[in-house]
Amino acid sequence: MSSTEIPEQFLNVAVGCAECHTQRSEAHSGTFDHGGYDVHTAVSPKDCATCHAQEADQFSRNLMAHARGNLVNNPLYMDLARTIEGRVARAEQKLEFTPADPLTQAESCLHCHGTELEVVGSEERDTFHGGMEFPVVTGWPNQGVGRVNTDGSLGTCGACHNRHQFSIEMARQPYTCKKCHVGPDVPAYKVYSASRHGNMFSTHGKEWDFKKVPWTVGEDFTAPTCASCHVSLLADASGNEIAPRTHQMTDRLPWRIFGLIYAHPHPISPDTSIIRNADGLPLPTNLDGTFAGDFLINASTMAERAENMQKVCRSCHGSAWVNNFWERFENTIMTTNAATLEASRIMLDIWDKGYAVNHLAGGSPFDEAMERRWSDVWLFYANNIRFASSMAGGGDYGVFADGRYHIAQAIMELNDWFARQKAMDALGNTGQPASKPSLQKAK
C-alpha cells in the first residue's frame, strides 16, 4: 500500500466486499440501499486510492485512463470508428455509414477504451430478502481502461488486476495485456509471443515467481514480460533498483509508435483530445509527417525516458547490444514514417483531383476504398513493423505478416489506382469534378 494514512475502519480488517463497494458511496451516483448499507456496483480508481494513492495518481496521468475520452472526443477518430463499427447500407451505388448503436460500441471500440457508466433509473428485483431496488446503469458491464465511473473518475484498476483477486501475478502476465493489445493495430502480444522473449516465457514462465516485490531480474524471471518493461519495480541480484514501479506507462516510453498517422514523441498530456496539428486537425502529426510539437514531449524528456527503458534492457544485455538495438528501432520509426508520407502524398493527390471526397469537402477521409487502403498503411502495416522492431523479435510481423511487403503493396495500389483515374480523367470518363478541397491547409 502506498497511502500513508488509512481510514481507521480499515486498520483491523481484511479487504472484503464491503471495503470496496461501500467505499465513498456518497460520491457515486449509482449508490443504493442494500440491507441497510449504502452500496455501489462499479469500484473506481478513486475508491482504490484510499489505500493505493500513488498508483491511482500515476494511473490518472496515464493515456490509458483517458482512453475513452481520447477516442470519443476526437471527431476524426470517431469518423474512422463510424466506418468500422457503424451500420452500412448501399443506396444508388454509394455506401452510407451511420454511427454504431451504444450496444455495438460497448463491445467493439469501447470494450477496451471504456464506456461511460450512467444511472438512468432503478428497477425492483426479487431477492432472498424480498423485493429490492437496484439502479439501472448503462455502459455496464465494462472493464475498459478509460471507463467513466459513476463517481466521475476515469479508468478501472480491474482492467489489469481482475476483480476480485486483484492479483499482481495476473497483472504481470502478458495474457492480461493481450486482452486489448493483440492487434493488428496494436500487435504487441502477437509480436511478443513470436519473439525470443515470448518463447522463453512460453517455455520457462511456469517456473518464474510472479509475486515477488521487488522483481529480481535473473532470479524471479529470466525474460521480460510487458510488466517488466513498462510497470514493475525491478532489482538486480544485489537488491539494487533497476527501475521503479510505475502505473504511468509512459515513464519508460519516449516514442508513441502507434502511428496517428505517423509515430511521434509521446503527448505531454494524457488527454490527447486537446491536440491540434498545424492544419487544425485533432492529430499529433501533420499530413506531411511533421509533429504537432507544442503538444508533444521535448528531446530532453525523450532522452530521459529512453534511458529509463534502456536500463531495463541492460539488466540482461550489454551496452553495445542495447545501443545497436535502439539505433535500429529509431531507424525503423524513420523509415515507416517515410513510407506513410509517400502514401499520404498519393492520397492528397487523390483528394485534390476529386477522385475521393474527404471531410473538408463534405465527405469522410475513411469511407471510400482507396481511403481505407491509405489507412491500412499507417493503422496496420507501419504499426506492425514498428512493434516488431521495438520488441526485439517477431521479425516476420515486420516483413510478410502485415509488414513491409504489405506497406509496399498498398502504396503500389494507391499509386496505380490514382494513375488509372488520371488516365480516365484525361479521356473525360470520370464524371468527377476537377478538384475539391483536401486535408491540406488552405493557402
The computed structural class is alpha+beta
Stretches where pLDDT falls below 50 for ≥5 residues? 433-437
Could you state the oligomeric state of the chains shown? single chain
- Rounded to the nearest angstrom, the radius of gyration is 24 Å
Largest sheet: 3 strands, mixed
Helix proportion of residues, in percent?
25-40%
Taken in chain order, the helices and strands follow as HEEHHHHEEHHEEHHHHEHEEEEHHHH
Bin the strand percentage: 5-15%
Shape descriptor: globular
Distance between the termini: 57 Å
Mean pLDDT across residues: 93
Strand order of the largest sheet: 7-8-9
Total beta strands? 11
Can you put this structure into words, describing what you see?
With 443 residues, the chain is α+β, with helices and mostly antiparallel strands. It is 38% helix and 10% strand. The strands form five sheets. A three-stranded mixed β-sheet has the order 7-8-9, with helices on one face. It has a two-stranded antiparallel ribbon with strand order 1-2. The chain has a two-stranded antiparallel ribbon with strand order 3-4. Strand 3 and strand 4 form a beta hairpin. The termini are far apart. Mean pLDDT is 93; it is low at 433-437.
